[in-house]
Amino acid sequence: MFSHLHGIWSLMQGHRLRYGAALACLLGATVLNYGVPLVGSVIIDFAISAKTPDADTSAPIRWLLNLFGGAEHLRDNLWLAPVAMVLLSAFGGVFSYLKGWQASVASDGIARRLKDQLYDHLNHLPARHHDQSDTGDLVQRCTSDVETARTFLASQVMDVGNALILAGTALPLMLMLNVPLTLVSFSLLGPIVIYAYVYFRKVRYIFKQVDEAEGMLTGVVQENLTGIRVVRAFSRHDHERQKFATPNALYRDRALKMLRLMSWYWSISDIVALSQLGLTLIVGAHWVATGEVTVGVLFAFLAYLGLMLWPVRMMGRILTDLGKATVALTRIREILSVEREPEPPANAQLIAAPLSGRLAVRDLHFSHAASDLPTDGRGALNGVSFDVHPGETLAILGPSGSGKSTLMHLLLRLYDYQHGSIQFDGRELSALPRKWVREQIGVVMQEPFLFSKSLRDNLRLGHGSAPDPEIESAARAACIHDTILSFEHGYDTVIGERGITLSGGQRQRVAIARAVLKRAPVLILDDALSAVDAETETMILDALKSRRGRSTTLVIAHRLATLVHADRIIVLEHGRIIQTGTHAELSAQDGLYRRLWQIQTSVETDFQNELQTK
Fold first, then answer.
1. Rg for the chain (alpha carbons), in Å?
2. CB 443 within 8 A of CB 408
3. Average pLDDT, the chain
4. In what order do the strands lie in the sheet with 441-444?
5. What is the count of structural domains for the chain?
6. N or C end of the chain, less CB within 10 A?
7. Does residue 96 lie within any of the structural domains?
8. CA distance linking residue 505 with residue 512, whole number of Å
9. CATH assignment at residue 370
10. Residue 370, pLDDT score
């Protein structure tokens, strides 16, 4: 329990002054609200019953009577009491409002800070962590879990303070009014508090299960919406509905289990709280009949007990929300505790000079499976070595799974190689800052991703200050300029999520234009022309050839027609280079490249002949 409270306390750092002000306002509201029953007690005993103050009259009653000018003056001016009660209630309401405002501002500030931390941290986590994480669960932690913590900090923290202040204020006041009746009034509060603590221990575990089930449910919904076109294309609606039904039922069952537990708590606590009121009323009425307690004092006790019992009873809910908040904060800290991508020590000399584009790869090994490198050659890359000169175009060919994209990911430092060397201009890649390395590389991924923004904003992703003429020049190089102008709003056209309103070929061409606009010394095209037609491919390649020499270019493709104009071609298989040379050299050699070339040219020839016969 104390460790959880310490975690909440540390979370309040930077906002503790506001919470202190909120508690001060809460104390003011409590004192003012407690004054209302005390005024009522004075009216009943000294104005209506015409009782005279004596030695047994408690100090608070004497002080209040003196404030009203004495019992006789109060009886002659009864209007003073209701006016006092209205003023006390009004000022108490003002203090309550200030308390809520201060707590809300503080909790919203903490929630904003948490979300900023989570978003920034997620953007700096290693690619391996994202490979193993469920997107829906991450979204759940960044939204629902943060909101759970914010709600607790906005309301329940103040409710805890309210219960403590009410009890701490009421106890001495009630003791001054009547000690025996105070003992009776507090007799059942102990069992309520103990039951609330036992309930907290139980509900915390159940809420963790509910939160995990909700994360699974969010993940299924997110995956379905992302792939909605595939679902419809394969008519998998029923399958997806059944897939959703399982985590949905699990979430329902766990949520109902928690609701049943909460219903037991409210039922039992209601019985105990009402029993406490009943016990105080019965005992107090007996003592009123015997003359040991006045009617006004009993009225005050019942009013104080009504004010105090329900906040104490709410401790169960407060502890429930504390359990939810601690579970949510634990899930948030699980993300924040993951180490960011490691960065080498700062070395200004290494990044002082811009890259010329010279690349040297030596005996490169890498495996996705584990940190330990396989010794049987089953890694994604197994001893790859090659050189690329500044401004040269290197083409990389190989069957699926041969390590082409893995090599590109290593060059971008999305992963760190386990053995070997990659050098840019003689500088070891692992010694260079990741951010700086990525600023030197323009890349078109195998699956180009576009944001739900305007085309202009998407193109400026790598060069935020690019003027419109440069944007249009890059778009022309990617053969997308005329297509963009055909849209109603041109470059200001807002595309859908993930660029869904564009065709596959249009998305690839926008991604190519975005990479070209970056004007980086190294350009990587990872199967960037797979979704464009042959004519457009030829136009793009011609435009890229006209820019030859401006940057070192690495081209990955399965269509050999895309690679024939490269300065050099390397062929990968099982993570090893099995052939290297120009198109003319490789097509003359017996090997994988020649076989692929013969297959592809034969297919194209047959296709053309078939068209001509028709």
1. 37
2. yes
3. 81
4. 441-444, 522-526, 552-556, 393-397, 568-573, 576-581
5. 2
6. C
7. yes
8. 11
9. 3.40.50.300
10. 55
